[in-house]
Amino acid sequence: MTDFNEIIDRQHTNCLKYDFAVERGYPAGILPFWVADMDFRTPQVVIDELHRRVDHGIFGYTDPKDDYREILQQWFTEHHNWTPKTESLVITPGVVFALAAAVRAFTKPGDGVLIQQPVYYPFSEVIGDNGRQLVNSPLVNQNGYYEMDFADLEAKIRDNRVKLLLLCSPHNPVGRVWTRAELERIAAIAAKYDVIVAADEIHEEFIRPGFTHIPFASISADAANRTITCTSPSKTFNLAGLQVSNIFIENPVLRRRFRQEVAGAGYSQPNALGLFAAQAAYSAGAPWLREVLAYIEENYQKTKTFLAAHLPRVKLTEPEGTYLLWLDFSDYGLSDEELDRIIIHEANLWLDSGHIFGKDGHNFQRLNIACPWATLETGLNRLAAAFADR
């Protein structure tokens, strides 16, 4: 059993989460709950495998063998009832890298690329940075429950001649786990207008009890034929710094175009230690994953209780997936700037401000709860104290 209550000092390890506050304009010593990595050790089987490889002492160019592809195929079959073809795998150093490659591979400068804000902010960055037109079909917030506006989605695709849709599934930051019916409607619209779908499914393992993640490519043969499925052990097993993501593209024509774009960026062989870590994790990391999911669920329930008791004006968006909470502070009537000031300089907390996810994130904050409860409780108490007299 892993002790997820253990507080591991991550400072002075060049850790983005803890060691770069000042460089990013935040006070030194601020308590961070922003970036989506966990404050838990990766599974022991992964650590053991890394020790074995480090002891070997040579870190030359490395590529996956067939057993790596077969292990991935088995994982997705067992965990998501979806069996991607082994030949469909393309490895990239990250999901955002893959999304940017998809934007370049399947659109031209000036083409429309559709996203559904509020959404993970690199979606808009990879569109704008590559000279494409951002087309937003915003999610509809129905009293804390987010839904897609399918009429708006279709109209935006049609009117802007959208060629590529970036689908966040499960959705970051609102925590929706899309239903089969919702995904089928997306698939039907994509088929009608011949839109390619790049599905960011990086949070696919963090699904709360009662919900099921459905890979978009599993919806139908047509969906599989037009989907770039982006997955990674980086969230699942806390391996982000090892830079390995597994991208599945069933359509050989799309796969070839995507590979060409990846090669054009100068990327070929993956990070050797990342590859070994991923293989060990998918081979024997399932027990650890079950444990961490149970711990995060406990953190969520405790946080929900805390907010109801001490911050009742903060509206918690009930998450269906991810380990990220989407908190609505609009009842305080603050500007985004004032809300940020209170949280950063009075609560001494580093959260992700909602406005960076698009204008639809106004007055929201994103909170990462994948950490020891003692750390999370400290943060919640600071938050409650900062808003006690408001």
Question: How would you portray this structure in words?
Answer:
This protein is of the alpha/beta class. The chain has two domains: 16-43 and 287-386, Aspartate Aminotransferase, domain 1 (Alpha-Beta Complex); 58-284, Type I PLP-dependent aspartate aminotransferase-like (Major domain) (Aspartate Aminotransferase, domain 2), CATH 3.40.640. 41% of the residues lie in helices and 14% in strands. The chain is built from 14 helices and 15 strands. It has helices at 16-19, 44-56, 66-80, 95-106, 122-128, 150-159, 180-193, 221-225, 233-236, 252-264, 272-284, 286-310, 336-346, 373-386; strands at 31-32, 89-92, 112-115, 133-136, 140-142, 145-147, 164-168, 196-200, 227-231, 245-248, 315-316, 324-328, 349-350, 352-353, 364-368. The strands form four sheets. It has a seven-stranded mixed beta sheet with strand order 2-10-9-8-7-3-4, sandwiched between helices. It has a four-stranded antiparallel beta sheet with strand order 11-12-15-14, covered by helices on one side. Strands 1-13 form a two-stranded parallel ribbon. Helix 2 (44-56) runs antiparallel to helix 11 (272-284), helix 4 packs across helix 10 (252-264) and helix 6 packs parallel to helix 7. It starts with 15 loop residues before the first helix and ends with a helix. The mean pLDDT is 97.
